[in-house]
């Protein structure tokens, strides 16, 4: 049984690693193997799901991000609580400061188009490779570690004018803002909302029964001693009083745009901007989206 579990973890990781598409495409033979494991033991199937859920995969740096990677001032930084490292990227020398937070399987250079716009507008832009991502050491990762990274950088840079997050980075942005992170405005792009929904979707994609999603939540909360409901974005945004721009594409196959609508419905001070046919990642470099962000940031 242990051999089967370890084999599937490594083999499944390889399959995902070589399938860098707009959504996670799970090969049928992998789905069948995971499903077979669940017939043998729900416990082992849940542990496998947990391992896969918290293990990011590193993809080669795209050519479009090479410029930012090359010309950034880069330095490693340790997260004291997580005892893991991140790699920080610093761009520009403006008096205003912006923090960019990438999503799952992303990198500190993933929001390069936004970083370019901000530096041209007089910002110093800070981003980072979260634990297990980009050039940070290979490791598991969870959102609370993204959050710790944001708070460590907030203290180091004495607060930020703007915080912008994509996907899990957007979830991170709202969760730190609701817990005292200092910023003047925020932008979240393609953000998820309810973590249990994300877990359930993940379980469905790897071919396991819905009951494993419940067991995954239980195992996750037991392992990290955290109630995942405390990180629901539509709940946390109710505590965020600064202006928030919520951007999402109607054709996002990774995170449904209904998540953005639900978050917006609960936000005390937000604007919703929905796009078409940009998906989950192309949206980051779209000219109209960049212009919308610029107008939002500059608006009094």
From TrEMBL:
Hydrolase recorded as keyword: yes
Protein name: Alpha/beta hydrolase
Species assigned in the record: Paenimyroides ceti
Keywords in alphabetical order: Hydrolase
Any Pfam family: Abhydrolase_1
Coiled coil: none
PANTHER family for this protein: AB HYDROLASE-1 DOMAIN-CONTAINING PROTEIN, HYDROLASE, ALPHA/BETA FOLD FAMILY PROTEIN
Single GO MF annotation: hydrolase activity
Boundaries of every AB hydrolase-1 domain copy: 99-191
């Amino acid at each position: 049984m242990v051999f089967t579990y370890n084999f599937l973890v490594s083999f499944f990781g390889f399959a995902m690693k070589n399938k860098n598409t707009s959504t996670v495409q799970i090969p049928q033979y992998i789905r069948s193997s995971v499903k077979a494991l669940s017939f043998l033991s729900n416990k082992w199937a849940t542990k496998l799901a947990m391992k896969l859920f918290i293990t990011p995969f590193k993809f080669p740096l795209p050519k479009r991000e090479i410029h930012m990677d090359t010309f950034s001032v880069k330095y490693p930084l340790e997260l004291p609580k997580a005892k893991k490292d991140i790699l920080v990227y610093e761009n520009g020398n403006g008096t205003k400061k912006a923090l960019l937070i990438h999503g799952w399987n992303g990198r500190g250079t993933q929001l390069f188009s936004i970083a370019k716009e901000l530096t041209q507008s007089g910002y110093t832009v800070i981003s980072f490779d979260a634990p297990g991502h980009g050039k940070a050491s290979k490791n598991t990762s969870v959102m609370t570690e993204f959050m710790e990274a944001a708070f460590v950088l907030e203290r180091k840079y004495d607060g930020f004018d703007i915080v912008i997050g994509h996907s899990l980075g957007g979830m991170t942005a709202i969760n730190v803002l609701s817990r005292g992170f200092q910023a003047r405005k925020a932008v979240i792009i393609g953000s998820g909302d309810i973590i249990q929904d994300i877990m359930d979707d993940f379980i469905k994609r790897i071919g396991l029964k819905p009951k494993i999603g419940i067991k995954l939540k239980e195992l996750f909360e037991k392992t990290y001693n955290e109630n995942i409901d405390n990180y629901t974005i539509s709940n946390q945004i109710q505590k965020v009083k600064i202006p928030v721009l919520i951007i999402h594409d109607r054709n996002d196959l990774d995170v449904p745009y209904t998540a953005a609508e639900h978050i917006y419905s609960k936000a005390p001070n937000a604007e919703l901007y929905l796009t078409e046919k940009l998906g989950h990642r192309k949206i980051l470099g779209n000219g109209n989206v960049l212009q919308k962000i610029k107008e939002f940031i500059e608006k009094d």
